[in-house]
Write a structure and sequence with these properties.
- This protein is 28% helix and 21% strand.
- It has twelve helices and 19 strands.
- The strands form five sheets. The protein has a six-stranded parallel β-sheet with strand order 9-10-11-12-13-14.
- Helix 6 runs parallel beside helix 7.
- The two termini are 13 Å apart.
Amino acid sequence: MITKSSNLVIVEGNLVPADGAGELARGRVEIDVATGLIVETGEARGTGDLVLDDEHIILAGIIDQHVHAREDPSGEEVYKESFQTAGEAAVNGGVVAIVDMPNNPEAPVDDESYRKKKGLTAGSLVDILLYAGVGPGTGPLSFEVPYKTYMGPSIGHLFFRNEEVLRETLSRYQGQFVAFHAEDPVILEDNKDAETHFLRRPPEAEVEAIELILRMGEDYGIRPHICHLSTAAGLELICDARKRGLRVTTEVTPHHLYYDQDNAQAFSAPSYLQCNPPIRTRLDRIALIEGLRSGDIECLATDHAPHTLEEKDRGISGVTQLDTFGAFLFWLLEEGFDLQTIQRACCEVPGRFLGRYLPHRYGRVEPGFVGSLTVLKKESFTVRRSGIKSRAGWSPFEGVTFPGRVSHTIVRGNIYPQLD
């Protein structure tokens, strides 16, 4: 980390403008490290603590809205990832803040358990917001937080086996932001003996779950968010619901954009790509790419699941991705995305979400916003297991060469160089 003797850190370089307003332009960002906030922006002067050349690109700070750090007060899963190691992996991947999921053995489902888990986040390098869990018999906390619902079995006890109990529980969350793992538990049960993971979790499990979620959103006045969308049909349902006036949002993961049932076989260990929901067809993948490009899918989120290699060999679902978030953005550029669209999906949209629950504003390079930035560099970069900071110790992009990588991650004015 680069340290400063004064309270002001100055960064200069090519800034991605917000809201599609123009091209890259050299600028200056001044961050007060005492408050962690941007105090001034303006024209570049050729001076500063970090002056970057034209091979670098400055984003407003990647925020990962879907992470499983796995640490919880029970201590059962710290061998996988702690909030400290998740923060190190995040910084390695250019991520300045994360939102952690609640499916822990000791889940945060009430004021006491939420605050207990929150106390574990203090040592992380990045800002952390926690989801509270929704499970049979739970209710809203006394303070505002986002909520997560698992419609099928997961780690811990936060899942529902039938619609009746799910509806009875969600009726208590009127007006709340509720994210969903959308896979219908009845369809999963009916297909549990199918030959492959793809067939055991068929597309209709997601599609029917989304249909139910959208109906419940209208019935109970909740604000539904569909996590890790994987099907074209699911996206179509979401777009139709918006036309009816429902406030519904969604996200997509890098692995569902990059891999499909055909090209996944080229990965060195295809079984390691097993995840829930599964990698889908090429047509689904193309629809997801276009949905992210158009804004129908609002944000990119990793669903970082730090399962160990031993667990992957046993067929555990989930992939680890915090370390490669920044480099993956160069693949999106190759796919024809522009930098403004990338910044919207990775910084601005999740930044607005974070700002609803944390005391400061995120996701824009403007005075008064948190002084956290992601600096990318146009330099060929091959993902290697040796470069992974996550305790999982592997990556679904091992061996992939991206045309760029993370150069520096700046968190509240603290500069962390990532280049070797």
